[in-house]
Design a protein that fits this description.
The structure is a homodimer.
Chain A lengths: L2 E10 L4 E11 L6 E10 L2 H7 L4 E8 L2 E5 L4 H4 L7 E3 L4 E8 L3 H4 L5 E4 L8 E5 L4 E2 L5 H4 L4 H15 L4 E4 L5 H13 L2 E6 L2 H9 L4 E4 L5 H12 L3 E4 L2 E3 L1 H15 L13 E5 L4 E7 L7 E5 L2 H8 L1 H13 L11 E3 L7 H7 L8 E3 L4
Parallel strand pairs in A: 11-12, 11-14, 12-13, 14-16, 15-17, 16-18, 19-20
Antiparallel strand pairs in A: 1-2, 1-6, 2-5, 3-7, 3-9, 3-20, 4-5, 7-8, 8-10
Helix pairs in contact in A: 5-6, 5-10, 8-9
């Protein structure tokens, strides 16, 4: 039995053209623990945009049905040399119905079930996935389950990572994001103090209504003072940042250090002994990360990715996290979407220019069967 | 019994004047495990310059015997707010003769001995030190012992830290420095592969003569290719940087990632899984640290300071390290000095403008008794 269907590919040529294109593909029969999922819903996440749109010029791109060709400027063209000429699938996660399985019992048990999965080619009418990584959705809809991996597991991962590191409070620099809103609920459930940084006054209200106790607005004149007060109140010397570029992390380290120094009785040229720990888990800002020499030597900054974290955390923790997601799929871990598009629709100019901005609360859902 | 002598103080006023001044001080009688050391030699280390000269304008300063007043520009004036108005002693380390002791046996045993110590006010004719932190120099001269703590223990600390972290190779971005030259010998003794980055072609020769196997010149057109080749040959994904500002660390992370990516069979938008680890242990460049988004998320950057490291390493390790320094004081851990100055001499314009440049191989030694 062979299955054919539409799938999206993204290719960056050495000459600087980013080509997004639908293609009729043949999907192999699942073997062993594999299942073939008829993909019915897949969110466009920031992590997908890294290869889908990156820094290419979609304002002046060439659009035709099922195909877009956009120029990639430097230094982003050279910076992605390793992918030049490679035809890459896209779409980390999604949900659909299992239509064929391999011989393993684990796979066969899923036949006909609605599942969420992380195939890496979710922008497709079909995808092969490993049964062990599939989350059976039971009575939940594919729309409820489409975003059940990336954001929920990342937000839960922050809480798990904090517990591993003995941190009882944390800062999140994108408090109003879909992930940030999940984190507010997770931290409340897990007794972790959370300082939310947002960019707009209306987001302060939004998060406060969700139960957030500490929300500071980075656009306010009092931002640094507000941030210091929140750190002082929570002892949050630990945090996560999806912005990456600019001074988002620098501001946090500065405020942390100022809080710590204010408690020192003696001046030290080396700064405080307070260890300050931040993780960058995204690149909403493609610019370089700027770290000013204003918080001594007691700080550590790391990149953070979900997959290596889950590997480090171990299978037992991962299974516990996934069960928690399933148990709270329509509450703590609910996602909402601004608009649904099919595969052709996601390659239209208006759609791309909109979803590539990654605005808070304006996520797109791809429904490959329309 | 009271002892009086000259001591250097540094003060930064809120109005932006950095004042370096000699003062006649009375030194308290040592009690308990304390000893009073007649200070005979103290090096001017980069870590001393952080409070001694910082970013002040010594070209246009006002000089008088035993006193200098220099303007501190922004943002360095505001950045050091915590020390405004504080009269700080200076001089991390030095060596001299114990002339009085407290009652503890450990202290009394040092009476009359030549010792190296880390009093924090080594630019002084006398200093109180804890006997437990003194290194008895035996037949070694005070000049041999003056620099036996900061650079030797830092260089040994890198090797110890690498072993704790399971790293068998490391990169040092200031290979030709006094500390860098020690590190070459330590790494050879401890079977740690070392990649040295230097800024001048003559330093390549210098370090090669010292037995360094991997020396790359950051001024060469082939720098990045040379660095990649050295990382590929050594598997050095771990390193230490005293520059801090600019792209010193960024270049290293980039080269590490390029080496790792070249070994990957499949492209990943998240970069390689190779963990890349760097530590900033100094601020030779006061500018901000620039981290470009060109090495994925598998990296960690920390500040590194000797004292917290030694606390973490524990007393047993520290004692072993100190013994190793003493056993190799005139070989592996030898320091050389460009010039000797007394306390008044270290406040003269010509001297300050020279030593504040922190040039390789041009360290000053302060001899408080002339």
């Amino acid at each position: 039995m062979t299955t054919t269907g539409q799938q999206l590919f993204t290719m960056l040529t050495a000459e600087g053209e980013l080509i997004l294109e639908l293609s009729e593909e043949t999907f192999a029969e699942p073997t062993g623990s594999q299942v073939l999922v008829k993909m019915e819903a897949a969110p466009i996440n920031p992590s997908d945009l890294a290869i889908l749109t990156s820094a290419a010029d979609f304002e002046n791109a060439h659009y035709s049905p099922g195909k877009v060709v956009a120029k990639m400027p430097e230094p982003f063209l050279s910076g992605q040399k390793a992918r030049h000429g490679q035809r890459l699938p896209a779409g980390n996660e999604g949900a659909g119905t299992v239509v064929a399985t391999g011989d393993a019992d684990q796979a066969k048990a899923l036949m006909g079930a609605r599942v969420a999965c992380v195939p890496g080619n979710a922008f497709s009418q079909y995808a092969l996935a490993d049964a062990g990584m599939c989350l059976p959705l039971g009575d939940h809809s594919v729309e409820d389950g489409a975003s059940s991996f990336v954001n929920p597991m990342t937000a839960l991962g922050f809480a798990e990572n904090a517990k591993m590191d003995g941190a009882k409070a944390m800062i999140h620099t994108a408090g109003a994001s879909n992930l940030g809103q999940m984190l507010i609920k997770i931290c409340a459930e897990d007794d972790i103090e959370l300082v939310n940084i947002v960019r707009r006054e209306e987001h302060v209200e939004l998060l406060t209504k969700l139960g957030a106790k500490h929300v500071v607005n980075s656009s306010a004149d009092s931002f640094m003072a507000d941030l210091r007060a929140a750190i002082d109140a929570t002892d949050a010397f630990y945090g996560f940042d999806p912005i990456g570029g600019g001074k988002a992390v620098d501001n946090v380290f500065k405020a942390m250090e100022q809080v710590a120094v204010a408690k020192m009785s003696e001046y030290s040229r080396y700064g405080s002994n307070q260890q300050k720990r931040m993780f960058i888990y995204g690149r909403l800002d493609f610019g370089p990360t700027i770290l000013t020499p204003s918080y001594g030597f007691g700080w550590t900054l790391s990149g953070w990715l979900l997959t290596p974290f889950l590997q480090k955390a171990g299978m037992e923790t991962v299974m516990r996290m996934r069960q928690r997601v399933l148990d709270n799929l329509t509450t703590t871990f609910a996602s909402s979407y601004k608009r649904k598009v099919d595969l052709e629709g996601m390659l239209e100019k208006e759609a791309i220019l909109d979803y590539k901005q990654m605005k808070t609360g304006e996520k797109y859902l791809v429904t490959p069967w329309g």
